[in-house]
Every structure is written in C-alpha cells, then in structure tokens.
Design a protein that fits this description.
- By secondary structure, the chain is an alpha/beta fold.
- The chain is built from 7 helices and 8 strands, in the order αβαββββααβαβαβα.
- It has 2 domains: 148 residues, Rossmann fold (3-Layer(aba) Sandwich); 57 residues, 2-Layer Sandwich (Ybab, Chain: A), CATH 3.30.1310.
- 41% of the residues lie in helices and 22% in strands.
- The strands form 2 sheets. It has a 5-stranded parallel beta sheet, sandwiched between helices.
- The longest helix is centred in the middle third of the chain and has 23 residues.
C-alpha cells in the first residue's frame, strides 16, 4: 500500500482504509469509533464503506509541561490514563506537574464530549465489535488510551485501523488490541502529517457536521 503515499487528504485515506477493511469480511454489527479531531474524517469514510454507525472516543495527549508536543501519556473518556513512566523518569517530571496537566486535559475531554455529541448518548459497545480509527499513529500513546477505554466497556473485540503508522506504534497497539490494520508503515517515520499532502487541522465544526451526517 506504500504506493498510495502521500495520501491526498484524510478523506482519501479513509476511503482506502474503508476499502481494505471491507475486503476482510468485517462483522456486520461493527461500530466505528474515531479519535477527534483528525480521526473523524477518516472514520466517516470507514463507516460509510462498512455501513456502520460512527461515534467518537475522546482522547487527549498529556504533554510534558515544558515541551507540550512531547507526550508523557494520554487520557481518555471514563478516566482512563496512560503514563510513559520511562519518559517521566528521564525528564524528571514531578507528580504534581503531571496532575496539573492531567486535570486540565480531563476538563477538555469532558468539554469535547459535550460539544461533539450534544444530547446524543454514546453508542452501546457491550458485545459489539469495535473498530477504532485515527489518521495515523506516531507513538501510539493516544490510541493505547483509547483501546483501554473501549475495552472497559466490554466490546466483543477491538480492531485498530489507521492509514499510516510507525512500525513501533503498530506493534504496541497490536499487543494491546489484538488486531491493528495499517495501510502503510514507512520508515523513517517522524510525524503523521508528513504522509499527507493536505493535513490542515480538522475543526470542531467539521467534527460535529460529520457526526451529524453519519447519524442521518
């Protein structure tokens, strides 16, 4: 699948990913869960390809206080928290600073869930197959938090599906989720955005509109 790189945009990547998943005889009652914001345009196309419902699982990176782009962990809906203990030790990050960052991101998770879903309740995942979708995986920490969150809701199984990922992230996620579908795992891998021609930020308005369309 490396010949598809770079993807034109998230919609194209989602169509290709949806076609790949559809070719694998997916279970009929699958639910697609996308990670906002960038995962939602991808998940929308996957949901269309599989004729499956679409919802979101909100995950937030926990950035190192003095280097916010570097993830020291992630949190997800339901109070799930993943910490990179090795990085935290290496950087000497005090527990109180971790808690400060985490508290701020918990508020953001709650705000986004209300913003994106409105009055719609989350989809019931118990005993249903779930496909978790994002626009790509670099370290995999956010997706790892999402997997743990979803597993706590007792689905029948969890598949992670992304257009592009680092090989290390795919291995990490496959160990946790059991199945990780990656269209491409190029090396070297520095950032997800380098594998898209158009990687402009997805807005909250776009997320809400795609979820509204998917619910129709």
């Amino acid at each position: 699948m490396k010949s598809h790189l770079p993807f034109r945009d998230r919609a194209e990547a989602g169509r290709l990913l949806g076609a790949e998943l559809a070719s694998r005889n997916p279970q009929k009652d699958s639910i697609i869960l996308a990670l906002p914001r960038g995962g939602v345009p991808v998940g929308f196309e996957v949901a269309r390809a599989l004729a499956a419902p679409l919802d979101v699982v909100v995950v937030r990176k926990l950035g190192v206080p003095w280097q916010p782009e570097l993830a020291m962990g992630a949190i997800a809906s339901g109070g799930v928290r993943i910490l990179d203990e090795k990085l935290i030790r290496q950087k000497g990050i005090p527990p109180e600073e971790i808690e400060t960052v985490a508290a701020r991101e918990v508020e953001e998770v709650e705000r986004r869930e209300l913003l994106y879903r409105g009055n719609r309740p989350p989809l019931e995942l118990r005993n249903r197959p779930v496909v978790l979708v994002d626009d790509g995986l670099a370290t995999g920490s956010s997706m790892l938090a999402a997997v743990k969150c979803v597993k706590s809701l007792q689905p029948s199984n969890v598949t992670v599906a992304v257009p592009v990922a680092s090989r290390q992230a795919c291995t990490l996620i496959r160990d946790e989720a059991g199945d990780c579908v990656c269209l491409a795992t190029p090396t070297p891998f520095n950032a997800v955005g380098e594998w898209y021609q158009d990687f402009r930020q997805t807005s909250d308005t776009e997320v809400r509109e795609l979820l509204r369309q998917a619910a129709c």
